[in-house]
Structures are given as C-alpha cells and as structure tokens.
Amino acid sequence: FLSQGRMKGRDARRQRDPHEFQTALSLYYTDKLHFPTDSAGSEIIIGGDNDYFSSQLTSGGYIPQVTPDPIQNAIYHYTYTPLRNAQNYELRYQLESRDQEIVLNP
Question: 67 with 17: CB under 8 angstroms?
C-alpha cells in the first residue's frame, strides 16, 4: 500500500508540474512571441544537462522554480521540445501507475 501511495503521489505531481510549465510558457510567449529554444531547437530533459528551458523561464520571472520529475531517471523525466521555429512545443512525461506517456501542446 505504501509504495502504491507513493507512486500515485509522484504521478499527481507529474500531472501538476507540466501544467505549471504551460502557464509559464504562455507568459513567455506573450512577451517574446516564441517559446524557449536554443540555437539548434533541441529536445531537452528538464533538469538535465543542457537544460536551457528552466533557465529561460526562471530568469525571466515566468516561474519561480522548474522542478524535475520526482524520480528523474532514464524512464521518468520531463522533456521539452520546441517545434516549428519555436512557435509550438511538446512537453512529455511518463506516468508510473498507468505506464503511459503524456504529450502536452499549447
């Protein structure tokens, strides 16, 4: 029961965090007329190496802190990908309880 409860708690956070990211992304887009990107338009793991996403959102004051996935490993992490010259994006995360990948767009 305890591990099931922890898993559900992590999944609840996984569903909440990306929606907070989306709010920050909307504010960022309103100011900049594009979503965060690097020169290559690369997909990144939020909280991982080369995470330009977090620094651009926090330094601009769009979100106080960008938190990585509660486990943050090869399977469980948040990814951000700018699309169409940073005019669109995908946020992806994996739920433990349903073994399901979720994809969010603006």
Answer: yes
